[in-house]
Amino acid sequence: MSDLEQLFKAALKARLQAYVPYSKFAVGAAVLGADAKIYAGCNVENVSFPCGTCAEAGAIAALVSGGCRKISQILIVADSKNLITPCGACLQRIAEFAEPDTLVHLANLAGVQKTARFSELLPLAFDEKDLRK
Ligand code: THU
Known about the structure:
4 helices, binds tetrahydrodeoxyuridine, alpha+beta
């Protein structure tokens, strides 16, 4: 199985665990780490809505907990005819562990519908060098 197929499978599997009693919108995300391992997460909502977390946040937490700090590729999947793109906060979360050329795969249940480089999605990411005056 290719990296992309494994990412898609892992994201679909994580999506099935999504806790989405409020939006009913299940999302799965899977990251291929620079360590060649795959880390996945789902969205986890909360009755206090802002406390909910996106699938990407779960996958990134799994990556870091697993001892890896570099995203080689990331895939996000939802059941949507439209492309699901990471929300603004998740783009910033991805920015922390990705490079401008990191591939971001956007998928629905039928498969990957678009692949973009991270820099296309967040061209002017706030990063560590912006902390320096
Ligand atoms: N959601 C994600 O998990 N990832 C995204 O990139 C966009 C939105 C979740 C948050 C919430 O649980 C549901 O989708 C509806 O917004």
